[in-house]
Amino acid sequence: MAKRFHSLLTKTLSVMLAALLVAMTMLEIVQVIMRYFAGSGFVWTGDVTVILMQSLAWIGAPALWLMRGHIAVELISGSGKGRASALALVVDAGIVAGGAALLYYGQDALAAFANIDIPSLGTTGDIKYYPMMAGALLLVIAGLLNLATGSRYTSASDQTS
Is the pLDDT at 87 greater than 80, yes or no? Predict the structure, then answer.
């Protein structure tokens, strides 16, 4: 069950990352076209682009952690023997603890920016911290899934084949 959820979450996050990249690309294309034909672009594109970029980072980190798709993650994940295995276990537990702490203390950031307006979007500044909170939750889930499935013992190339 945990391995199926691990696989499903990895695929879902990959699709979300692709959709975010497409959205950012399309937004920039529209912005260039608007500047060329109308002389100015939309006021809100800068703020939306920041949110999309933050979303890419905060969704990408758990995706890479689940896939073991980054060199730093593969260095930590080890070969599944002895100290490397124990280190991978400790690091996965640390990811869970760090993500949980970020969720807890991130509430302060949300509260601090809840009263600051972003006029171009017609909303408050806390919207810029939603990707961080989602990413923190996804990191907790990714760490727990890696602990539950034992995927810390495999590399990204093993999982894709």
Answer: no
Q: Characterise 150 by phi-psi region: left (phi > 0), alpha (psi -120 to 50), beta (else).
A: left
Measure the CA–CA gap between 97 and 56, rounded to whole angstroms.
22
- Residue 93 identity: A
Contact 153, 85 (CB under 8 A): yes
Residues 6+ apart with CB under 8 A from 53: 24
Confidence (pLDDT) at 157: 46
CA 46 – CA 49 distance, rounded (Å): 5
Q: What is the pTM of this model?
A: 0.79
Cβ proximity of 154 and 66 under 8 Å: no
Tokens of 7: 């696989």
Q: Say if CB 139 and CB 65 are below 8 A apart.
A: yes
DSSP state of 117: E
Query: Count H helices, E strands: the chain?
Result: 6, 2
